[in-house]
Amino acid sequence: QPQGSEEARAFVSAFLKRSMPRKNDEAIQDILARKAVVLEHYSQKKKKPKRRKPKGFTAKQRREMRLFEIEPEQQRYSIFLPLHELWKQYIRDLCHGLKPDTQPHMLQGKLLKADLHGAIVTVTKSKCPSYVGITGIILQEFKHVFKIITKEDKLKVVPKLNNVFSLEIDGFISYIYGSKFQLRASERSAKKFKLKGSIDL
């Protein structure tokens, strides 16, 4: 049987008292008069577990583990020639094909941000004459140095500071001023380089 209005009001009042124990009768009647009922719900906030970031090796640990050292038996120019071929294809894809009408400044801009592992470079100018003429494949690039393997199977560590490197691919020759290039490969990809007419060593 359908309930009368008084019974319905009594039921609602009793229900609200149970649902909102913190409110008195006057407050409940006020809520009913406004015909807007918001039931109180006190839920316990769940604490989110803190995510722990995986810790990598420190620079000291990497040195102790010799992670970046190339074993003497692996220091052979012929081993890394396939890496150079892969690098050339990577640059061609990056520049959408190196055509005779390719703008040099466009190529230069791409090379400044490109990964140079596998590139063949030559030291063309240096404040230290002993570095001039060193040619080889870049095996490792760090913030301040290049590690280069020469055709004589010698691993050379060449600082970027005070050195100018030339890089040739498909007839295009580009120059890298090491003093302005002292960044890690991952940092170079996001850096904006300014083209200047002349740069000192």
UniProtKB/TrEMBL annotation:
Its main location: nucleus. It is found in: Nucleus, Nucleolus. Keywords: Nucleus, Phosphoprotein, tRNA processing. One of its GO terms (biological process) is tRNA 5'-leader removal. GO terms for cellular component: nucleolus; ribonuclease MRP complex; ribonuclease P complex. It holds the Pfam family RNase_P-MRP_p29. One of its GO terms (molecular function) is ribonuclease P RNA binding. InterPro entries: RNase_P/MRP_Rpp29-subunit (IPR016848), RNase_P/MRP_Rpp29_sf (IPR036980), Rof/RNase_P-like (IPR023534), Rpp29/RNP1 (IPR002730). Belongs to the eukaryotic/archaeal RNase P protein component 1 family. Component of ribonuclease P, a ribonucleoprotein complex that generates mature tRNA molecules by cleaving their 5'-ends. Component of nuclear RNase P and RNase MRP ribonucleoproteins. RNase P consists of a catalytic RNA moiety and 10 different protein chains; POP1, POP4, POP5, POP7, RPP14, RPP21, RPP25, RPP30, RPP38 and RPP40. Within the RNase P complex, POP1, POP7 and RPP25 form the 'finger' subcomplex, POP5, RPP14, RPP40 and homodimeric RPP30 form the 'palm' subcomplex, and RPP21, POP4 and RPP38 form the 'wrist' subcomplex. All subunits of the RNase P complex interact with the catalytic RNA. Several subunits of RNase P are also part of the RNase MRP complex. This is Ribonuclease P protein subunit p29. It comes from Jacana jacana (Wattled jacana). The lineage of its organism: Eukaryota, Metazoa, Chordata, Craniata, Vertebrata.
